[in-house]
Amino acid sequence: MLYSHVTLLMLRVIDIYSKQSVQQSTTRMLVAEVPGDIQIGALFPVHRQIQGSESCGEIWESYGIQRIEASFLALKYLNKKLPFKLGIEIHDTCWSERVTINSLIRMLKENVATNKCCTTPGCEKKNNAVISAVLGPGKSSTALSAQNLLQVFKIPQIGYSSTSIELSDKERFAYFTRVVPSDVWQARAILEVLQHFNWTYVAVVYSAGNYGEKGYEELLKMTNENVCIAHSEKVKPLAPEEEFRRALKQIINLKIVPKAIVCFCEGEVAQAMLAAQKYLISKDKNIEKFQWIGSDGWADRKDVVVGLEDEAAGSFTIRIHSPRMEAFEKHYFNLNPENNSVNPWFRDFWQQKFECQFVIPKEEIGLKKQCTGNESLKIGYEQDPKLSQVSNAIRVLGEALEKMYKDRCGLDKNFTECTAMHTINGTLLFKYILNVTFVDEFQQVITFDQNGDAPAWYDILNYVGKNGGYKLAGSFRQFPSGNYSLKFHKKRIIFYNNTYDVPISVCSQPCGRGLKRTPTTACCWLCEPCGANEIVNQTTCVECPSAYWPDEERLKCVPLPINYLQWHSPGVLAALIFAILGILSTIFTIITFVNHNSTPVVKSTTRELSYIILCGIIACYGVTFAILAKPTFISCFISRTLPPIAFSAVYAALLTKTNRIARILAGSKKRILTKKPRFLSTFSQVVITWILVGIQGIIVAVGVIKEMPTANYDENFLPSKVVLVCTSSTPAFLSPFFWNLFLIILCTLYAIKTRNLPENFNEAKFIGFTMYCTLVVWCAFIVLHFGAVNRALIMSFSFSLSASIALIILFAPKVYIIIFQPEKNVRASYTTTKLIRCHFGNTQGNVENKNRSISKGRSSTQSLSYSCPTRTASLHIAANQSSIISSSGQTTKSDVSTQTEGNIFHSSSSLLSSQPFRFKRTLSVSHGKKKSIGEDVIQLIDSCRKYQEDKLHSTEINAPKNLLLEVEEDDDDTEDEHIAGMIKNTLQNQMRTVLSTVNPTTLGSLVLTDENDSHSGGLRNPAAETDPDDSHFEEFLRSTGLHSFNLTSSFGYKRLYGDLTPPYSITSNSSTSESGSNFLSSTSGQLIELTDKELAHLSVRQLNQRLQGYDQEVVAKLKQKRRTLKNRGYALNCRVRRLQSQRQLEEINHKLRHEVTSLKCTIQYLQSRLQYYEPITTAQFNDSRMATFQLCNNSSTTNDMNNNNRSNVQPQQQIGRYVTSNRVSFDNFMMRES
């Protein structure tokens, strides 16, 4: 309903408007019509537009008459193959928008309004065919107006020369399509021409209206940094001449005048601009001509340049590709007024062209020329370039209608029978039009995109002057893929100055290489240099990314070659050779140590820790290959993680070793060893070492997780050079090494602490020297790491140098001794224990003799400590008798010996244990006078108390081991007489009593006698006692499963209580020693009679003398057997001595613990009495003391019984009488005090 009302309203308007307009001109009311079954309309500019008005002028041959005849010719060829007859109705537009609308209304009124409104009976139509589609008009602005009217009636419109960009908008112009491209592509073609000739500074003149304004907007949109529009002017097509002169003068008055002007305008505007240029040059000779570039509105029109040939010479114009139609010329030249009655304007055109008349009034006969009809149309003939587009447009409509006819009617029915085609659906027909595709006779592809536009194909024309006219210079073509190209066919092109030299139209000269444009005014610039690593992007400098560098033209960034350390460079070769030699040396050292694993020199280095150090050194050398390899994630990961862990393994082992030495030496300085040192075993040392290494592993793992190592470019060489390195921040790289530095510093401090060792204790000195050198190397490495550029090479040398220092200083001397001085690789030079493995060989004997000589000159109450780096605290006094003052003031001589862990002080320390009581420094101990107890006594008593507390709460069943005899002898240990002497001295030292360090005058009242011998007032001489029975010890040996031995009297218990010099001579049992072997001499053939006992007692020199002249094999076997016998005897000697010592110590400890408990009870009672100063009588004191003593004895009975079960041997009477006498004397002393 809405559509019907709108249609009726439009028809009413059309009817009223038509009645007012058709009366204006009879000529304009003419219509050229070819009837057919289906009718199409056509709008051609048959007449020119009078400049400055909307009126029609003279007949236009090229745009009017030729296009009408071209449509007739195309229709003639088309109807030969169509199943129906296609008719056409042509109206004149006079190139005017108003006349176009008038003609279109008339066309719709006659074909739509009249026919549609004839509904009464008897009403007949003139022509049953209605307008199904409209061709034209040629002008873009008039085509827009026509489409606004036609789409109301849903009549498709096809353009043959309308190129306006707006017509591509299908939302506004839904029924418009064209066989020519949009002005978007024309703007692209003009821009390509400007860039081709490097005309970067141009002005633009465009005509007012849809064609010029939209074209300029598109051109402005496409301009980039290569083309700059300095100035633009919009002019009206019908404007006076002064307006065009003003617009051109605006361009001339610019500060920098462009030489090229783009005219995106219609032909009339282009002609007016050329005329204005001619006028201005005539007024001012200093004004030069311009280089014009015209759009397709100018194209190849001769009327534009008529009379202005010099001003237009050298200009370029754009023309839609239009091949010359030879068939049309043949048809056209055969036309005359007699045979062309279809074209109502042809007779007038003939008279106008040839300036004659067919009918001359009588009064004008002789004044005007008579037309004969034989004149030739070839005279002044110029074919219209749009004829091929007109022909293709009609063919498109015919192809679409034919396709539609076949789909709706088929091939069997004629048009009369096919009623479906009697009424054309415009929407359906438009869809068929968009789907038409064909190739015309000129090999031009006709197809339509989604906007109804045909592919772009332009001819670039060069106007060379009046004589040459327009010459084809090149072409611009769009391809189906969307790409385009500009090609110039003519090599010699004429420019505005009538030369072949390309004129320059720039504001500023192009900047040179590496210079950017800095804009000053519109399209003008200054040239400024860019950085060395920057490319020039016209107006900006763009820095190349990392690892890229500008090319020679400074237009693009190219990748730089990647550099990294090559293994063939001298520095890298030196580092690799250094590392390889270090690895080989370390492997050689390991092999040497493994082959001599049981020799003293290897044992003295703590073998387990030494192997850890050597493995760490190999890793330090091996990391050089990862550091100097091509940086990758794997090599960077190894370079980051392996060095800290490898160095920590080296320095953690060294720290553990030096700490062990320092702790043992610190314990040896004490007056008494109250507790066995902890974590001194080999297993403990290895565990501690790996714990320290594990801490380093945790530090490294945290650093790697926080910052993953990567291969990247070294910033020190960027941007001109790319060096691939393993990158990591300085804190992430150095933080793990601070732990190693901490270990080094601790090792250095321990080395300094143990620097004053005996001469032959070289291990600590070697470690110290290693640490000093390592500190120097690491300090230098840290400095170079921050200042050097090639860090990888410095790192590899530093790591290898640090490893070499440890290898050379710590292991080279030992390897030298093993290989070149095997005579020094004996136990005499490298005596070791499990607590400490150090050198104390020949030099030690000198120190010992020296100390002993000093001790002889001292008094018997002084003590002397041997300078032996062991953990045993030895308090030495002279072997003569010491004087001890008893309670009665008498002096008793007695042998006093020192004691180590597990000796007599097990019970002595009970005097002050587990109670708040402590000796006072001013306690009166003799004749009621106060005497000060020495600091050494207080210290010794406190140590004993602490040790006794630990032992009382211990759950161990076995007796404590003697630290000196704790070493388990290896089966392959070879000991000699010097070792036996060393063990003898050790046994002598361990039986000293702690009280030997106390001044006898200080403790005189504390030294009491046994209850049975209290009248003697002192200690009995232990020498007077009989020797203890050895049967108990022999029975003990048999219970342990050991072989029995012949123990000489010189090593009996007599020596233990006498001079304490155990000159044992322990030999093998006769049952085994007597079983000797007989050997046959190779020379005499007699047997050598030697028993095992005789062989063991022979020295090397004696054996060599007896075996002179015998076979070498026999000699070797005898020597080997002698070494085996001696080793067996030495091992059994050590076991016997250890068991004897433990047995004696346990007996003494048991007795002293029982007696000290009683003394403690007495002291507690006296302490409680003295605290309150209570007076007491002798009888009261005795009764209270006995009650307290009985209570304490009962409380300790259980512990004593348990301790008695630990030993089957009775305690020594000598020690028992001594302790008991102490209690009695102390009671007397406390009585006197009370």
UniProtKB/TrEMBL annotation:
- Main location (coarse class): membrane
What topology in the membrane does the UniProt record assign? Multi-pass membrane protein
Question: Any stretches that span the bilayer, and where are they?
Answer: 572-597, 609-629, 641-658, 679-705, 733-752, 764-786, 792-812
Q: Does the keyword Ubl conjugation apply?
A: yes
Location relative to the cell: Cell membrane; Cytoplasm; Nucleus
One GO CC term of this entry? cytoplasm
**Keywords for this entry?**
Activator, Cell membrane, Cytoplasm, Developmental protein, DNA-binding, G-protein coupled receptor, Glycoprotein, Isopeptide bond, Membrane, Nucleus, Receptor, Transcription, Transcription regulation, Transducer, Transmembrane, Transmembrane helix, Ubl conjugation
- What is one process in the GO biological process aspect for this record? positive regulation of transcription by RNA polymerase II
Example of a GO MF term: G protein-coupled receptor activity
Annotated region (Disordered) at 1009-1030
Q: Is Nucleus among this UniProt entry's keywords?
A: yes
The G-protein coupled receptors family 3 profile domain, residue ranges = 571-834
Function description: Acts as a transcriptional activator which regulates the expression of several rod-specific genes, including RHO and PDE6B. Also functions as a transcriptional coactivator, stimulating transcription mediated by the transcription factor CRX and NR2E3. Binds to the rhodopsin promoter in a sequence-specific manner.
Q: Which PANTHER family match?
A: METABOTROPIC GLUTAMATE RECEPTOR (PTHR24060)
| Family the UniProt entry places it in | Belongs to the G-protein coupled receptor 3 family.
Q: Give the quaternary structure.
A: Interacts with FIZ1; this interaction represses transactivation. Interacts (via the leucine-zipper domain) with CRX.
What name appears for this protein in its UniProt entry? Answer: Neural retina-specific leucine zipper protein
Source organism of the structure:
Strongyloides stercoralis
